[in-house]
Amino acid sequence: MGLLLAGSGIALLLVAGGFLRKRRVADPKRVLLGCLAFSLALLLSGSLLAIGAGAATEAGEPGAVQAASGWAFLGASLATGMACIGAGIAVAVVGAAALGVVGEKPELLGSTLIYLGLAEGIAIYGVIVSLLILGKV
Predict the structure, then answer these.
(1) Higher local confidence (pLDDT), 97 or 56
(2) Looking at 42, 64, 86, which one is the last position of a domain?
(3) Which residue from 76, 68, 60 is spatially nearest to 127, judged by alpha carbons?
(4) What percentage of the chain has pLDDT greater than the value 90?
(5) What crossing angle do the helices spanning 67-104 and 109-136 adopt, rounded to 10°?
(6) Based on the domain organization, do 27 and 47 belong to the same domain?
(7) Average of pLDDT values for 62-86?
(8) Both 137 and 72 in a single domain?
(9) Are residues 4 and 70 in the same domain?
(10) Are residues 137 and 79 in the same domain?
(11) Is the confidence at residue 5, as pLDDT, over 90?
């Protein structure tokens, strides 16, 4: 059920992006942020449903998901997801500035790639944190 809700949230975001692709909208950022918030709400509700289903199962049953591990999965997914969103924003800003610098001074390409690598490192930190969380489960 959680995967269904998360998939529908992602599909909604893709449909909104396709809808806005060739049209003029007064504020496309607001529309996409609204769809992103709605898809995150669907993801969170799906995760909470999975946690509730895990809490409802019996503890002695083999393969049963405990409520604590459900929270750990939610924390790991949020750590990775939020870090990737932050890294995407950072790469967008740094990449735009790097292209401007390289257009004026092509010899600075190497140093701009270092800054882009640092911005992408944010996503790797999120993955490392989620792996540490999942290692404790």
Answers:
(1) 97
(2) 64
(3) 76
(4) 9
(5) 180
(6) yes
(7) 74
(8) yes
(9) no
(10) yes
(11) no
**Distance between CA atoms of 81 and 35, rounded to whole angstroms?**
16
- State which residues form the domain around 59: 1-64
Backbone angles phi, psi at 129, to 5 degrees: -65, -40
Q: Which residue has the higher pLDDT, 26 or 120?
A: 120
For residue 84, which of 124, 111, 52 has the smallest C-alpha distance? Answer: 124
Q: Are 98 and 136 members of one domain? A: yes
Q: How far apart are CA 103 and CA 89, in angstroms?
A: 21
1 pLDDT higher than 60: no
Distance (Å, whole) CA 23 – CA 69: 44
pTM above 0.85, yes or no: no
What are the two backbone dihedrals, phi and then psi, of residue 103, each rounded to the nearest 5 degrees? -65, -35
What is the rounded distance in angstroms from the CA atom of residue 127 to the CA atom of residue 82? 10
State the pLDDT at residue 43.
Answer: 64
